[in-house]
Amino acid sequence: MSEKLPVLLLNGPNLNTLGTRQPEIYGSESLDDVVALATATAAEHGFAVDARQTNHEGEMLEWIQQSRGQVSGIVINPGAWTHTSIALRDALVIPEVPVIEVHISNVHSREEFRHRSYVSPIASGVIAGFGIRGYEFALRRIIDLVG
Ligand code: DQA
């Protein structure tokens, strides 16, 4: 379809339960809905999306390491690892591609422990509080950067 490298769309722990998990915070759309939205957005610009979710941090780190040279950019919702994982932040610079950090909820209006992100300092941009539309905006931005 296209010779452009895909965008890697990563979702971290508990995001497989989107739609049923605290819908008053995260909404009623599922992770499948997120992937469909991201895929359609990227396709408008001739990009494919490689979408993955895991509850295992080591698996996430390996996917990121292996993506070097294979992807044009990374859109990631790191879930709670945002606030805890230096290893994730270190991994995300390995592919040397733009990274956009997405949060469905507005983490800054929530508990204090959600205000710190280990990922934001190495991200090209951060989106929070736009619901799953944030993934669409992140896809558009990463395509602006790499397209
Ligand atoms: C989240 C916010 C995080 O604080 C939380 O741990 C999540 C989801 C969000 O999308 O709003 O799992 O990343």
Q: Which secondary structure elements does this structure contain, and how are they paired or packed?
A:
Elements: E1 7-11, H1 23-26, H2 31-43, E2 49-53, H3 57-66, E3 73-77, H4 86-92, E4 99-103, E5 125-128, H5 133-146
Parallel strand pairs: 1-2, 1-3, 3-4, 4-5
Helix pairs in contact: 2-5, 3-4
The protein binds 1,3,4-trihydroxy-5-OXO-cyclohexanecarboxylic acid (DQA).
Residues 14, 77, 79-80, 82, 103-105, 107, 114 line the site of 1,3,4-trihydroxy-5-OXO-cyclohexanecarboxylic acid.
Give an overview in words.
This protein has about 150 residues and is of the alpha/beta class. It has one domain: Dehydroquinase, class II (Rossmann fold, 3-Layer(aba) Sandwich). Helices cover about 35% and strands about 15% of the residues. It contains 5 helices and 5 strands; from the N terminus they run βααβαβαββα. The chain has helices at about 25, 30-45, 55-65, 85-90, 135-145; strands spanning about 5-10, 50-55, 75, 100-105, 125-130. It has a 5-stranded parallel beta sheet, covered by helices on one side. Strand 3, helix 4 and strand 4 (about 100-105) form a beta-alpha-beta unit. The protein is globular and about 40 Å long. The relative contact order is 0.21. The structure holds 1,3,4-trihydroxy-5-OXO-cyclohexanecarboxylic acid. 1,3,4-trihydroxy-5-OXO-cyclohexanecarboxylic acid binds near residues 77, 103, 104 and 105. 1,3,4-trihydroxy-5-OXO-cyclohexanecarboxylic acid binds near residues 80, 82, 103, 107 and 114.
